[in-house]
Design brief:
Blueprint lengths: L2 E2 L4 E2 L3 E2 L5 E3 L8 E7 L10 H6 L11 H4 L8 E3 L5 E3 L5 E3 L6 E2 L2 E2 L5 E7 L8 H17 L8 E3 H4 L13 H8 L2
Helix pairs in contact: 3-5
Length: 183
């Protein structure tokens, strides 16, 4: 997997430009990766609802759950679908709006210095092996391209927003991820 650092995009990934981003305080200060999970509606996979959320096109009438989130302005840098497909929403040198109120190692506003990666999934189901492999390939490419980013700077959303967030959840296998990253 390659990243074009001039434009901050994964080469060959679909790119759906989310309006939900802005400038980082320091575009060279990318020092962490935050892993999330998302499914819309909750527990359902496939379809275009995640796209619609990140592109501000979610129809609040399409599902009862959407009424509460249709006006939320969020994004991630990349979504990894169940089959391992990557969709990028925000260039890496820009600030995606994925972490919200957050703190990591005493630093607040984690969006300022992290890359947000969403896995299509939920807190109640295992993730797919194709997702882990795509995640590992992406993490290795990011660490290669961004010198301040290292393999020991990967964390879950629940760790930077405890009590507010639970993702990537108990079914995300951190031990397996770390094993794959060392291969």
């Amino acid at each position: 997997m390659n990243i074009d650092t001039q434009v901050g995009l994964v080469v060959g990934a679909e790119y759906h430009c989310s309006p939900n981003h802005d400038e980082r305080p320091d575009s060279t200060d990318i020092t962490g990766i935050v892993i999330h999970n998302i499914s819309l509606p909750p527990g359902e996979f496939g379809g275009g609802w995640i796209d619609d959320l990140f592109l501000n096109k979610l129809d609040p009438k399409a599902h009862p759950y959407f009424e509460a989130i249709a006006d939320v302005r969020v994004s991630a840098h990349v979504l990894i679908r169940r089959d391992g497909q990557l969709i990028q929403y925000v260039p890496f040198h820009k600030r995606a709006w994925h972490a919200g109120v957050s703190c990591w190692d005493g630093l607040e506003r984690c969006n300022d210095f992290t890359v947000g990666i969403e896995l299509e999934g939920c807190d109640e189901q295992n993730f797919e092996s194709s997702q882990y492999q795509a995640l590992v390939d992406l993490i290795k490419a990011l660490c290669h391209c961004y010198p301040n980013l290292t393999l020991d700077r990967i964390i879950g959303h629940q760790d930077i927003a405890p009590g507010r967030k639970t993702d990537p959840g108990p079914y995300f296998d951190w031990q397996h991820l770390h094993f794959l990253l060392t291969q």
